[in-house]
Design a protein that fits this description.
The complex is a heterodimer. By secondary structure, chain A is an alpha/beta fold. Chain A contains 15 helices and 20 strands. In chain A, the strands form 3 sheets. Chain A has a 9-stranded mixed beta sheet with strand order 5-4-6-7-3-8-9-10-11, sandwiched between helices. By secondary structure, chain B is an alpha/beta fold. Helices cover about 35% and strands about 20% of the residues of chain B. Chain B has helices at about 10-25, 35-45, 60-70, 105-115, and strands spanning about 5, 25-30, 50, 80, 100. Chain B has a 5-stranded parallel beta sheet, sandwiched between helices. The chains are: A alpha/beta, B alpha/beta. The interface of A and B includes residues 123, 157 and 160 of A.
Amino acid sequence: MTDKMESGFAQHPERLGSGVAGLDTVLLGGFVKNGLYIIQGAPGAGKTILGNQICYRHAADGGRALYVTLLSEQHERLLANLEQMIFFDPAKIAHEISYVSAFQLLERDGLAGLLTLLRREIVAHAASLLVLDGLVAAEAYASTHLELKKFVHELQTLAAAAECTMFLLTSSGATADASDIRPEHTMVDGIISLHDTEHGWRGERDVVVRKFRGSDHLRGRHALCITANGIMVWPRTESLPLPEARRVRDPAAPRLSSGVAGLDEMIGGGLPSASSTVVLGPVGAGKTALGLQFLAGCTQEQRGIWLGFYETPERLLARAREMAPALPELVQSGAVQVHWHGGAEGLIDRVAFDLLQSVQTQRATRVVIDGLLGFEDMTVQPTRIPGFYKALTDQLREFGVTSLCTAEINERMPPPVAQPPLDRLSTLAENLILLRHVEEDGALRRLVSVLKMRDSAFDPRRRGFSIRQGGIVLDGTDAKMMGRRAASPDAAPGA
Amino acid sequence: MATILVVDDEFGIGELLEALLQDDGHRVFTAMNGRHALERMAEATPDLVISDLMMPVMDGANLLRAIRDNAEYKAVPFMLMCALPESSIADRIQGYDAFLRKPFKLAEMSGLVTDLLNPKA
């Protein structure tokens, strides 16, 4: 099947980078050059910052930009606010980027006068990019919808003739309701919608590409932040296409040791290469210890990443000295990176995007995600978690990464049950390992069971284990336990 | 300053060309199709005709033929505009002096206008 048949678009028209890496990913390469786009959003949504960010990126790439305001911010206030942004470069102003106020002319000569001014300024400045900030004011001077559409149509013709990519910034039609279609929407080449939505006490920003002519794009909502770096966008993880150079699964590829000799025996020599494993267990069952031991198997050639939410890097390394003594040195040498995402609020797509970026730059082959509940705690959309987890591990697999994720469950015997939304993970993970406690002679004893292992046989018998100096050590097969009141390993969590 | 007739059924193109050529100091008048263009030419003979190919009532090819068949107009330079590449129309339409592919670039349009109005000896 050809690319065209799959996506509907065979051509890859010349693109204009937005200066926002994540947005360019959503647009599969940036805006189509010489197109006409609407950037819409309620006041405070980030339209002006995005418009300016696009201008400064364009100027940095050698282009010339014209920023025309219509009854929006005064230029001195606009520039004062932009000074806080890293992308702002005053040396570009007046030559590469020109700021023009056109409201008085609009008031006097209407849309026809505005169009004439835009045409003349584009030619005079040899501008290859135009931002018109305040389309809503122009709308007010259109006596009919048709007149506004005619204005937009003529702008579109000018964009193509002048080889000038244009952005119209407006607060009209900025509701999250996709059915809020305005006349000008039918005319333009694309609509970028910025939102700032409250979820209970929290607020989250996102961007949606509602229309994008001539190219495919990543549909749906994508996380957005406004920082001193300007607008930042992280594509929704579930929407990310898999890497082009997909790996062919090699069943004969050597397995990766879990770091626990007895466990490797149970699973046929180690975890299958480029597979995803979920380790379920209650608090204190040894999930983090297993993750540390797995990552201690890294080398300078086979690098790794630890992603955690709860334990600080310092505390984690202190535990590693006890349970996986090789790990601190690997961290010190850079063979293993530690990513820690503390704090109660965050963006799961930012965490995932940063992880995937690091996997590529680090050329990591092992990743441990300690505490999948950390993603659930972080997001205002917990129902996304199973799909998010699947998308993330699919990406990791395509990059050749063997991942091990830990997930906490409530200890209820019998059976152990993962809570929503983790309950679906048991079906999504390729390999599933369950750690539990059982009472024995007035003390808690740890047990490990393998519930599922991709493409291979495994020892279904549960084994006792202890955590000592140096890490997890498995006991012999615990025949005694078979008759005790322990959870049945045959009952998959959540089943 | 020259007198230029712009013929296009698409108002955005006609209006843009009119504005751009006026900015360059030319006198511009417009028509919506070939028949309308011949009516406008009866009022004043232009120094240059810029015409779209695909139009209702009378298209650019028939307008070109009518101009070339008319003793009074046949020397008027004719610039043909089309969204198709020139190679796809050249074998069936002859007699135009310049071809402008749509969407056109300002610099290209302006250069062709200058060349047609100031032919080298």
